[in-house]
């Protein structure tokens, strides 16, 4: 019998075939903490009495959540991070550099077959590159910074197979929202989620990262996609280990398979206040929209900004709209392509690369009773900083339409 | 580990880390006593003033879902809660809880047989919990996680052993 993609990556690390449910110890290829989790990691690291960061090429800090800082307390935590990174001579990506999950692949920390841990739940994003990547807490991260290793329970795998071609108004975000609606917020708890099928193979890296990013929203430990020519093209010149193609075997022992016909998909909205409360956009047409946010580690990439511009070029937004590129590299790309100019002209507020309003920590907080269409990955009560606001999750295409019309409308072709 | 006995605070399904400790607080301080004042604030705004030392939380499915913030089990522990028993936990919350020394137990049967205000007896090592005179069993906690708990969390564990139990302890 074959192996799932997760089992393949683990087997390469431990030198034998792993059994789901067993505990294995794996060496870590990249470890990251950000301003929401690094301060506590530093506290644990120091309390442990650990002296040295195990490998300063594999460790990284990112300041992205409250970036730039909005208050003294946060500034003190940022300073603590800068001091620690300097003392242990590893890289800290400071304000304006972008969101951790975008930076790690861009800067070459992520490669097929690698094991990536991040002190952030959306670390599962890196599975788009056939890396085993998962979120851990701050003290687990302190253990990794001290020892370079961590224990994992070998997960079973749920396979999501998307065959066929998606309609022109459907993006990978719609496919993942639909999947979460089917599987439920905890349907994949402790499991890996492997995305495959023709529609996935045809997706760009930007689109694939949107899929794996949200594996955690069905409880998944990681989201995984086979590495291929598209992965290679993205990673070329970024990584300094040999690129390999890795894929799950069709005859592996999957815990479950969800089969989706891409042609049947339509634009989706995840409704307040649970990510798995998913409905077709068509069912909510006409809902007034107060704020739109296009950005985050889910949908703040170049492809997403291009789609927004396609919709908004030469027009004016009716709902107030915040756009934040996911990284400096994307920001520069968008400037070069003239996208930023178009967005600004259309009336969008374009901000510094970072998490921005996604987590409601410092700006872009909606008011009581307001409806927000957001391209992010979570709409829990209070997520954007106001428990009385209604956050709907959507694709950048649906979000751009909502911005343009000031209400929810089924998008046409981008 | 000795018997944990206390009053129950019951919550439902999908209690997210945003409800346990809203994100806005975690970016400003890592003072646990300060953070604990906001424990469970999103689900019950007065929780931190009502809870007593030794009380237990009973939760539904997917307890602790959402972000990886370790502040979630930390504030629960610092609010005085001695253990959380839920139908199921989100994975990162589960790991984090052991790392900060908060016992967490999956016992799906308990949920429908207990209400806020009841007294619970939890026998961690034996794998049983007693509510309203009935005994419910649960799968024992893996030995190496139990060892981390007994040491008082991962930090103390490392200090005591000079390494992690999943490596070869050096001391
Ligand atoms: S963009 Fe949102 S989901 Fe992504 S890392 Fe930042 S806060 Fe988390």
Can you walk me through this structure?
The complex is a heterodimer of chains A (414) and B (171). With 414 residues, chain A is an alpha/beta fold. Chain A folds into two domains: 5-260, Aconitase, domain 3; 268-405, 2-Layer Sandwich (Aconitase, domain 3). Chain A is 31% helix and 18% strand. Chain A is built from 14 helices and 18 strands. Chain A has helices spanning 5-14, 38-48, 72-87, 100-106, 138-147, 172-183, 198-201, 205-213, 229-235, 296-299, 302-312, 328-336, 339-345, 396-405, and strands at residues 23-27, 30-34, 59-62, 91-93, 115-118, 132-135, 149-153, 157-163, 192-196, 222-225, 256-261, 268-270, 278-280, 291-294, 320-323, 349-350, 371-374, 390-393. Chain A has a five-stranded parallel beta sheet, with helices on both faces. In chain A, strands 16-15-14-17-18 form a five-stranded parallel beta sheet, covered by helices on one side. In chain A, strands 10-9-8-11 form a four-stranded parallel beta sheet. In chain A, helix 2 crosses helix 5 (138-147) and helix 6 (172-183) runs parallel beside helix 8. The radius of gyration of chain A is 20 Å and the shape is globular. The mean pLDDT of chain A is 96. Chain B is of the alpha/beta class. Chain B has a single domain (3-140), classed as Aconitase, domain 4, CATH 3.20.19. In chain B, 30% of the residues lie in helices and 18% in strands. Chain B is built from eight helices and seven strands, in the order E-H-H-H-H-E-H-E-H-E-E-E-E-H-H. In chain B, strands 4-3-2-1-5-6-7 form a seven-stranded mixed beta sheet. The model of chain B has no long low-confidence stretch (mean pLDDT 91). At the A-B interface, helix 2, helix 3, helix 5 and strand 7 of A face helix 2, helix 6 and helix 8 of B.
């Amino acid at each position: 019998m074959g192996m799932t993609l997760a089992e393949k990556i683990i087997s390469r690390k431990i030198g034998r075939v792993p059994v789901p449910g067993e505990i294995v110890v794996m060496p870590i290829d990249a470890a990251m903490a950000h301003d929401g989790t690094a301060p506590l990691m530093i506290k644990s690291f120091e309390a442990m009495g650990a002296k040295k960061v195990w490998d300063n090429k594999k460790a990284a800090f990112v300041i992205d959540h409250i970036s730039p800082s909005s208050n003294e307390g946060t500034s003190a935590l940022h300073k603590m991070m800068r001091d620690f990174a300097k003392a242990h001579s590893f890289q800290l990506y400071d304000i304006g550099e972008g969101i951790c999950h975008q930076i790690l692949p861009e800067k070459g920390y992520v490669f097929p077959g690698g094991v990536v841990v991040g002190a952030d739940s959306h670390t599962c994003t890196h599975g788009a590159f056939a890396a085993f990547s998962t979120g851990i807490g701050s003290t687990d991260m302190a253990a990794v910074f001290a020892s370079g290793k961590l224990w994992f329970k070998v997960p079973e795998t749920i396979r999501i197979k998307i065959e066929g071609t998606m309609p022109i108004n459907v993006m990978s975000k719609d496919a993942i929202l639909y999947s979460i609606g089917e599987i439920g917020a905890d349907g994949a708890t402790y499991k890996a989620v492997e995305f495959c099928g023709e529609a996935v193979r045809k997706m760009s890296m930007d689109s694939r990262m949107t899929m794996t990013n949200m594996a955690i929203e069905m409880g998944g430990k990681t989201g995984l996609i086979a590495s291929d020519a598209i992965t290679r093209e993205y990673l070329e010149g970024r990584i300094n280990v040999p690129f390999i193609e890795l894929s799950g075997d069709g005859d592996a022992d999957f815990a479950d398979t969800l089969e989706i016909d891409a042609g049947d998909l339509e634009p989706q909205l995840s409704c307040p206040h649970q990510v798995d409360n998913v409905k077709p956009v068509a069912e909510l047409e006409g809902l007034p929209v107060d704020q739109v946010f296009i950005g985050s580690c889910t949908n703040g990439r170049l492809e997403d900004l291009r789609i927004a511009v396609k919709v908004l070029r030469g027009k004016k937004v009716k709902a107030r709209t915040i756009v934040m590129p996911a990284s400096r590299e994307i920001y520069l790309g968008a400037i070069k392509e003239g996208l930023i100019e178009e967005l600004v002209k259309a009336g969008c507020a374009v901000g510094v690369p970072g998490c921005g309003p996604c987590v409601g920590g410092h700006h872009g907080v909606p008011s009581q009773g307001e409806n927000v269409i957001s391209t992010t990955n979570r709409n829990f009560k209070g997520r954007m900083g106001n428990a009385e606001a209604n956050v709907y999750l959507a694709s950048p295409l649906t979000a751009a339409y909502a911005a343009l019309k000031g209400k929810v409308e089924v998008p046409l072709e981008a | 580990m000795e018997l944990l006995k206390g009053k129950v605070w019951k919550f439902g399904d999908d209690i997210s880390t945003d409800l346990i400790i809203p994100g806005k607080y975690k970016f400003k301080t890592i003072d646990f006593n300060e953070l604990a004042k906001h424990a469970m604030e999103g689900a019950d705004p007065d929780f931190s003033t009502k809870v007593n030392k030794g009380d237990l939380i009973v939760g539904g499915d997917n307890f602790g879902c959402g972000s990886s913030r370790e502040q979630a089990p930390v504030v629960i522990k610092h609010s005085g809660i001695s253990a959380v028993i839920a139908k199921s936990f989100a994975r990162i919350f589960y790991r984090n809880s052991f790392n900060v020394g908060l016992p967490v137990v999956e016992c799906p049967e308990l949920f429908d047989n207990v209400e806020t205000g009841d007294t619970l007896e939890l026998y961690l090592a034996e794998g049983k919990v007693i509510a309203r005179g009935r005994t419910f069993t649960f799968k024992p906690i893996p030995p190496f996680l139990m060892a981390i708990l007994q040491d008082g969390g991962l930090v103390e564990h490392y200090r005591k052993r000079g390494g992690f139990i999943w490596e070869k302890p050096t001391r």
